[in-house]
Amino acid sequence: MTWIKAIAQRSRTVAPISGLSEDMPAKQPQVWSVVWIAAISLLAFVVMILLVNNLPATEVIPYSDFQKYLDAGKVAKATVTGDTVTGELTEKLPSGTTSFRTNRIAPELATELSRHGVLFSGIPSAVASARCCHGSCRH
Length: 139
Hints:
This protein has helices at 2-12, 31-53, 63-71, 107-115, 125-130; strands at 58-60, 75-81, 84-89, 99-103. The chain is of the alpha+beta class.
């Protein structure tokens, strides 16, 4: 136990830092600046979360639903990029958004599937290629 007392005794006596006189107080870390930085960071994080959650979501809909909305005149605008169609509807979807995204399929196949009342969607070409059994399928 005597070595523990010796360590405790040594830790109580602090050698003066060179360049400081004994009557000058040592500079203490400013705890409040750390607290303010933490509070501002937390506030910024909360604001970001609230902003992201309030952005309008884009719902992925089946291509067959897109065709039904199109036939009913409920598509306000659409952008076609490769196999993907994105746009806005004139009325809200069940999720509460008007933004949609869907993947096109060949018009002949879409017509045939619609004629039989089938709900259908497409997969973008890049995704379909990636799913192709590691090169063992033939195109």
